[in-house]
Amino acid sequence: MLATITQALPRLSPSERRVGQWILEHPKKTANITLARLARECETSEPTVVRFCRHVGLGGFRELAIRLTEALSSPATYVHRDVSSDDSASDAVIKVMDASIQSLIEMRSQLSLMPIDAAVVAMKSARQIAFAGLGASGHVASDACHKFFRLGIPCSSLSDIPMIVQFASITQPDDVLVTAARPSLH
């Protein structure tokens, strides 16, 4: 949840950004605070706090408290554990594994917000599937293409903007374009 808030900050209004920054600075306190008190602490209104919650993909303030409680109960949720040059090899491996586990936990908490069933239906009946990604996401798109190709599904991998634009210009209603990018809450 805290990573989701951090990613959303640049897209928020100034008053909503104050709410997000306050939550990031006081995650434990926020999990047990009232809506009115949070609004006062952030020098904003209660509707602004509710808008903030919706902009980060939550149904409302109550869900924020629940998600924060879940996040805080997971080890290393709000402790940033980057690998440094001073780490031993075993410490570095543990940090990488912890980050991977935490990413999976965060992904699981967001699954209900994702249109997975609709995506599966669209992909099952697709004439062709194109996986698109730029930069490092291009590798993810290429890997997905290889996996679907091995299943016998017509697909391609698009790793630069001209290729994506060209594909988009010739698509038909039963074509599917899957982008490999950071999740967006909008």
Q: What's a quick, concise take on this entry?
A:
With 186 residues, the chain is mostly helical.
* Overall spatial form: globular
Q: Taking all residues together, what is the mean pLDDT?
A: 84
Quickly give the structural class.
mainly alpha
CATH architecture of the largest domain: Orthogonal Bundle
**Count of domain modules:** 2
Main sheet: strand order = 2-1-3
The CATH topology name of the largest domain reads Arc Repressor Mutant, subunit A
Q: Helix segment count?
A: 10
Task: Label this structure with key terms.
Arc Repressor Mutant, subunit A; 10 helices; 3-stranded parallel β-sheet; globular; mainly alpha
Write structural notes for this entry.
With 186 residues, the chain is mostly helical. The chain folds into 2 domains: 2-112, Arc Repressor Mutant, subunit A (Orthogonal Bundle); 116-179. 59% of the residues lie in helices and 8% in strands. It contains 10 helices and 3 strands; from the N terminus they run ααααααααβαβαβ. The chain has helices at 2-8, 14-25, 27-31, 35-41, 46-55, 61-73, 89-110, 116-124, 136-150, 161-170, and strands spanning 128-132, 155-158, 175-179. The chain has a 3-stranded parallel sheet with strand order 2-1-3, with helices on both faces. Helix 9 links the parallel strand 1 (128-132) and strand 2 (155-158). Helix 1 runs antiparallel to helix 2 and helix 4 (35-41) crosses helix 5 (46-55). The protein is globular. The two termini are 16 Å apart. The model is unreliable at 76-80 (pLDDT under 50).
